[in-house]
Amino acid sequence: MKQMGFLLILMIILGMTCTACASEGANFGPQTTSGEPLWRLLSASDAVNSNLSKIETALADASLVLSETGIDGPAAQAVLSNLTMLDTAVIDCITIDANGIVREVEPMSFESVKGTNLKLQKHVNDTINTKLYSGFHFIKAVEGLYAIDSEMPVFDKNGTFMGTVSLMFNNSQFFGRVLAPFQPSSGNSKIWVSKADDGTILYETDPTQILLNKSSSMYLDYPELLKLFNRMSIERTGYGTYEFLDQSHGETIKKGCYWTTIPNEGTEMRLVLTLEL
Questions:
Q1: Which of 63, 64, 101, 212 could hold 216 in an S-S bridge, CB 3.0 to 4.6 Å?
Q2: Are residues 125 and 109 in the same domain?
Q3: For position 151, which CATH number holds?
Q4: Quick one: CA torsion of 223, 228, 232, 237, rounded to 10 degrees?
Q5: What is the 3-state secondary structure (H, E, C) of the chain?
Q6: Within 10 Å of residue 232's Cβ, how many Cβ atoms?
Q7: What is the pLDDT of residue 26?
Q8: Residues 224 and 166 placed together within one structural domain of the fold
Q9: Cα distance between residue 133 and residue 130, in whole Å
C-alpha cells in the first residue's frame, strides 16, 4: 500500500509539473500510461537511492575507523582495501590530508596517485573547506578517467579535521548493475541516467551514447530531444515525447519519456524512463 501511495504521488507530480507538455504530446502522459512502466521508474529510483546510501554509510563507517588509525600507514590501507570491496563498480579508495594531498590509495595499482594534490578538484576543495560530506560528483579523475567520486571528512579523536576518505566508482557499471532488474523487456524502451546541466549520459543500455552530451553530433538533428535535455536541466520531474534513433541506430522512431531526480548533494542527475511509442 505504501508503494502504491508513492506511485500515485509520482503520477500527480508528473501531471502537475508538465501541463505544458499537453501540446507536444497530447497522447502521452501519466493519464495514458499504464502503472507498470511508472512502477519500474519508481522501483529503479528506490534501488539507486538505496545503493548510493549504502556507499555513504560505508564511507561514514570508514571515517570513524580512520579517526582511530589515522589516514596513513598499513591500518589506513586496510580500511581502504575493505572499502574497495563494497561494490563491483569501485575503482579506488583514497585518503587525502587537510592540504589536499593523497596519502594512501587502494588498490595498489593506483599507487601512482599518492602525493598528488587534489585541491584543484572543486568537490575535494569544498569538502576540505566546509568539512562536510560532499555527496556524489561526476568528475574527470587524476587517474585518467571519468567516474563518480564521494568524499567523507575524517576527524581525529579530539575533533580536529584530518582530511577525507573517498570512494570512486565507474558510473556505467554501477548504474548498469542497479538498474538491470527494472529494465523494460523491449530494446527500444529503457531506463538511463544523465547529468542535469548538460545532458551528459552517465548510463545507457546503448554503450555508444555513454559520455555524450546534448552538444554531441548524434543528437543535433533531433530538436525535440534537445528541447527535452533543456527541460531536464531545470525540471526535477517531467515527461515528454521526441524522435530519436532506435537501439540499433537503424531507423528513427517516436519515443516518450518520464524523468525524476536522484537525490544528491553533488552532481544533479536525472533518472529517465524511455518508452517506445
A1: 212
A2: yes
A3: 3.30.450.20
A4: 180
A5: CHHHHHHHHHHHHHHHHCHHHHHCCCCCCCCCCCHHHHHHHHHHHHHHHHHHHHHHHHHHHHHHHHHHHCCCHHHHHHHHHHHHCCCCCEEEEEEEECCCEEEEEECHHHHHHCCCECCCCHHHHHHHHHCCCCCEEEEECCCCCEEEEEEEEEECCCCCEEEEEEEEECHHHHHHHHHHHHCCCCCCCEEEEEECCCCCEEECCCHHHCCCCCCCHHHCCCHHHHHHHHHHHHCCCEEEEEEEECCCCCCEEEEEEEEEEECCCCCCEEEEEEEEC
A6: 24
A7: 59
A8: no
A9: 9
Parallel, antiparallel, or unpaired for β 238-245 and 201-203? unpaired
Question: 195-219: per-residue pLDDT in tens?
Answer: 999 999 999 999 999 999 999 999 9
DSSP lists the bridge partners of residue 93 as 106, 167
What is the amino acid identity at position 48? V
The parent domain of residue 225 ranges over 28-34+173-276
**In b/e form, how buried is each residue of 155-193, taking b as 16+ CB within 10 angstroms?**
eeeeeeebbbbbbbbbbbbbbbbbbeebbbeeebbbbbb
Q: Which residue has the cell 590509495?
A: 105
Whether 177 and 166 share a structural domain: no
Q: What is the pLDDT of residue 16?
A: 47
Going by C-alpha positions, the residue among 53, 97, 59, 51 that lies closest to residue 80 is 59
Q: Around Cβ 146, how many Cβ atoms within 10 Å? A: 15
The residue written with cell numbers 526535477 in the block is 236
Whether residues 235 and 189 share a domain: the answer is: yes
Q: Which residues contact 59 (CB under 8 A, 6 or more apart)?
A: 83, 133, 150, 152, 165, 166, 167
pLDDT in tens, 183-194: 998 779 999 999
Residue with cell 602525493: 115
Contact at 8 Å (CB) between 139 and 104? no
